[in-house]
Amino acid sequence: MNIKKIWLSILQSLTLLLVVFVIHGFGQSAGDYHKVEIFGGYSLAATKTITESVTFTSPGGSQTFSDLCSSATGEMIGGNLQKFFCDRRSFNGFDASITFNLSKYFGIKGDFTGHFKDDRFDDNFTPPGVTQTITTRERLYNFLVGVQVKNNSKEAQIKPFAHALIGAARYTDRQAQVLDLFPQFNFDGQDRETSFAMKLGGGIDIRAGKRIDVRVFEIDYHPIFAGDRNWKVISGPFNPISSTGRRSDNITFSFGIVIH
Which of 107, 110, 138, 259 sits CB 3.0–4.6 Å from 18 for a disulfide? Predict the structure, then answer.
């Protein structure tokens, strides 16, 4: 049984249901509350790694780094690279959602986010005096659906809201290593994972016009439940490369414009 395929099938069904609701909503006569709202804006994600451990296999054997945040691991992989696995890092991106309100206070919501980060980690190992440069290109997309509770009255001025969403997160990391003294150990690979994800939180909208609100802020707890996976090795002596997954406890902050 493929859990990822099951979750993707559920997500597709819920998304189709949301589209049907929205099309139906646009055809309804206006009442005392907004039937449909569309949000778009900037989003900042404070993320943790989805990797619990990493195993590299080369012609000389394999090595597993299971305690990625220990001082011993830092001495082997480099203190700056260790930040990739151990620090909470900031990703810039966008947040877009559409909500069909079934009543004045309850709606079905679909949410799509994208967060991006290009980074570089330089470490020097002495001896033998080798400089290691790791470059990363990370992309994190979320496709989520769920429910929203909010006062959708057309006359409301300040509109707090809360939502609970579930769906899929798609993470990719194109990573390259360059060793100036030992180029035979340079590698290029890609970590890819589709995981179950959630988004729990809320925020405040303020009325700015007949059909426009300003989302002053939205803050969410955004866990991603990553599984084990094998990397796509593009070049280099380390093949295969595998990672064990973990829950990534992330926080996202967004703001923007809501159109009714």
Answer: 110
Instruction: Considering only CA atoms, give the Rg of the chain.
Output: 22
Q: What does the mean pLDDT of the chain come to?
A: 90
CA atoms within 13 A on the CB side of 205: 29
Here the tokens at position 213 are: 């609100």
When pLDDT is averaged across residues 23-41 and rounded to a whole number, the result is: 74
Check: CB of residue 144 under 8 Å from CB of residue 197. yes
pLDDT grade, residue 167 (50/70/90)?
A: very high
Report whether 173 contacts 159 (CB < 8 A).
no
Task: Spell out where 70-211 has E strands.
Answer: 89-101, 106-125, 130-150, 158-179, 187-207
CA angle 141, 161, 171 (to 5 degrees): 10
Phi then psi for residue 86, to 5 deg, are -115, -25
What is the CB-side half-sphere exposure of residue 249 using CA atoms within 13 A? 2
**Alpha-carbon torsion, ordered 235, 241, 246, 252, to 10 deg:** 0
What average pLDDT does the segment 78-83 reach?
Answer: 95
From the list 166, 138, 140, the residue with the least C-alpha distance to 8 is: 166
Q: Does the pLDDT value for residue 196 go beyond 60?
A: yes
Closest CA to 154 of 30, 38, 37, 33: 33
Report the amino acid identity of residue 137.
Answer: R
